[in-house]
Amino acid sequence: MKKKKPEVNPADYEGVSPEELRGLIERYQAPDGKNRWDPNGNTFEEGQFLLRKALKTVGLDLEAALFTSKDPRAQKLTAVLKTSNVPDGFEKWQLPFSLYGPSNIFITHGEPNAVVPSHWHKHGAGYRLILQGSLTLGNGTELGPGDWFYVPQGFPYSFTVGAQGLRMMSGYQC
Q: What distance in Å separates the CA atoms of residue 77 and residue 121, rounded to the nearest whole number?
């Protein structure tokens, strides 16, 4: 018989520290112990609840500005949002953003040194995950394989593809 997961009540976790939230995530994602893999252990809503709490613990507002995997608050969230619910030999963590609604997902190839001029998306937020190559955002932040950036709805951004070209995955609410 499967052990029932603990109920998550948002009111019980107001004002928790990142360390306390990390403890909640550990108990919630793998209630029977570390490294016990249950691929169906969490619902979308449960993941969204934990994400919102994690963002609040570090004071990150998704709609305030573009942020990247190199942002110190995002790096702190990587530790908070790491899951123990994976098979042996794997590591996994939830990215510290969500589009909170339907989205389209794309793979983009960029030629070396190609430029995406400053623009914005009026219909919704988006994210980019660098798979191969690199890019440099208009603010000078260079991102390579495994790095990502999140762009709020209506926020202008630009980037230049690195000398080796670029392959990235993108999700858009438009």
A: 26
Start-to-end C-alpha separation, the chain: 44
User: What does the alpha-carbon distance between residue 152 and residue 126 come to, in Å, rounded to a whole number?
Assistant: 7
Burial 115-138 (b: 16+ CB within 10 A, else e): ebeeeebeebbbbbbbeebbbebe
- We find that the CATH architecture of domain 104-172 is Sandwich (2.60)
Please tell me the predicted confidence (pLDDT) of residue 142: 98
Whole-number Cα distances in Å, 97 to 38, 41, 89, 115, 136: 23, 20, 25, 25, 21
Token pair of 10, please?
Answer: 């948002």
Higher pLDDT, 88 or 106: 106
Task: Read off the tokens for 34.
Answer: 């570390």
Give the Cα separation of 118 and 155 in Å (integer).
10
